[in-house]
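The protein record passed on for reference:
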Amino acid sequence: MNGSVAAESVELQSLVEHRESVPAAETTESVYKWFQSHSHEYVGVVSGKRLIGMVSRGHIGFLLGARFGFALYAHQTLDKHLMKEHLHFHRDTPLLAVLEQALSRQGDSFYDDVALVGEDEEYLGIITVPTLVRWQSKLILQKIQLAEQQRQALHENNSQLFRSLNQLRQSQGRFEILFENSALGVALMNARGEVETGNHRLEILMGGQIEANGVFNLSALVALPERDGFLRLLQEHEANPQEGNPRNSEFLLNLPGRGPRRFKFFTNWIRETGQVCALLDDITEQRVLEHRLIQKEKSELLDSLVGGIAHEINNKLAPIIGFSELLLGQLERDQSPETLAGYCAIIRDSATESAKIIRQLLQLSRPVTGEPAICDLRGLVREVMTFLNFRIRDTGCEVILDLSPEEALIRADVTQIKQVIMNLTLNALDALENAPLKELRLSVAQQEDKIILKVADTGHGIKSENLPYIFNPFFTTKSPERGTGLGLSVCLSIVKQHGGEITVKSVLNAGSEFEMALPKKSRDGLPPDSTNAGQADGKKPVFENNHGAGRRHVLVVDDEEFITAMIQEVLRSDMNCNVECVTNGLRAVTRLQESNFDFVISDVRMPELDGLGLFEWIKEYQPRLTAHFLFITGDAGGRDLNQKLESLGVPVLRKPFSVNKLLHEYQRLSETTG
C-alpha cells in the first residue's frame, strides 16, 4: 500500500503538539496570564516532572470569569482546579487504542486534548484532538484500501481466506465505531464536492440525502451564491496539498425537508488518499441567536438616540419656518433680491440637513442585510460623527478626527459597521461625562493588509479585573437605565463576522482605547467615484430649455398639493413646459386617454391607483411613455418595494429633492429619448 503508514509503527511522541507544562503550585491567575501569551488550549500540570492532571484555557477563564471568580480563585493553586476528567496515555500505547478511547467520547469532552506520559508518569506533552482526527481519517482510508486489496488476494490464495476475513471484520468493526460515533458529520470527498465516504451523523445532518452507495454531491446542496466559493475552497486544498493546514469556513446549505441551514466546515487535505476531509457542524440556531442579539442592541441604541434626533430635526426645521415667514414679510416690503436669495439658501440648506438626518436614521433602523460592499471606513466615521453631533455637544468634549489621507477600503455591511462605530463612540461619551479632561479621538490608519480604527477617550477607564469580561453578553459596569451589557458583545460578533478583531486597552482614571482591525480591500475592478453635477450645493447649473421649440406636455401625478405646485412651477419657468397636475393614478389614466402627453412624473404611493399601477397601465396602452417616465417618492421603502422599482428600470427621485436634481433628471431623460 503505497504512501500508507501502519498504525503500529506510529510513535505517539511524534504526534505531540507542544511540551509546555505548568507546576501544580502555580496560581490560577498566573496560569491565566500564561494562556494569554500562548496559543494552546490545554496544558499539563506537573509536580516535578510527573503529570498530575490538566487544565484548559476555557476552564481557567470560566473560573476567573464568574462574578466573584477572580476574587475566589485567582490565588488558589492549580492542584485544586484540575480538569475532572482527562485522558493521558503512555507513549508505548498503540495508536489504535488511543483513537478508540479518545474519539469515542461523548459531549464536550470529545474536544478535550489528551496528554502523553513516559516512565513514572513523566509528562511528555499534549496531543490535540484535530491531530487524532486526521490520523483517524488516514487509517480509515488505509483500512478501506487494505480491505479491497485483501478481497483481490482471496482469488489468488484460498488458504488465507479465514485469516483475511477475520482481520477485515476486526478492522472494520473498530474503525466503524470511531467513524460512526463521531459527534460531527464526517465527509471524505473529491475536489468536485462528491462525497465518497460519510458517517451516520452526516446522513442525519443532511436529512437522509446520502444514497445507499454512500456517494452524493455535497456542492449541489450549497446555496447558489456561495457554491463557487465552496468549490474554490476544495480546489485550493487540491492545488496546495503541501500546506496541510485545516480551514474553517461557513456555508449555507439548502436541504430538502429541512430548508436552508448554515454549517461550519472544518476542512483539510488528506495527502495519502487525495481527498478533502470535512467535519460539519450545524450552527443555524447559533447564528439566529447572534442576529437577535444584534437587533436587540440596535433597538436599544435607537431608543437612546430618539430624543437627540428629534432635537436635531427640530433645529433644522426651525429656520425653515422662520425664514419662510421672513421671506413672506420681505416680499410684502419688496426687499432686495440679495436678501431674499440669502433667506432661500438658509431654507434650502436646513431642509437638506433634515433630509440627511432622516436618511441616516432609516438606514440604521433597517434590519441587517448581510450583503457586504466595498466602502471607505473614513466616510462611515464622518457620517456617525454627524449623526452623534447632539450627544457630543451635550458632553462638551473635544473631538479629534485623525483620518488616513488615503482611501481606507473595507468589504463590509455598512449598517453593521456603523453600529460598531456608534456603540464605541457612545461608550466613550458616557465615560467622559464626569471626566476633568474631555477628549475623544477617532483615528483611521492602514497597516499592510488591515484597516485600523481606534476610538480613544480620556474618561474614567475600566478596572483591570473587568477587562476580561467586557465583551461578554450582559456584562456592564453601568446602571440598568444606562446600559444593557449587549453593546460590546454585539460589536465583537459583528467584527468577527467581517473577519476582523477588536481589542481594548484601558488605564483606570486615565481613559480607554478600543481598536478595530478589518481586512483591507483594494479598488481593483471597482468603478471610479461618480460625482453628480448640479446638486443642491453650489451654483445652479444651466439647463437647456425648449423655449424655441414646441412646448412639451407634462403630466404630474401626486396627492401632495405643494409637491405638484413646485414641480409645475419649475418645469414651466425653467423648461417652458405645459404642465398638468392630478392627484392619483385613476385621474392620470383619464387624462392620458383624453390628451397626448410627452412626459409623466408620478408619486409611488397614492390613493385609488398608485404609481406602480399607473406605470403598468402605460406599459400596456401607451408604451412610448415608459421611456419618458419618472418616479418620485418620500417613502424609504422596504426591500420588496425597492427591488420592484429597480426591476422596472425607471429612474426614482427620493423626496425631498432639489430643483436642480429634478431638472437634471428631466433633461437626462429628454436627451436620452429625444
Observations:
- The mean pLDDT is 80.
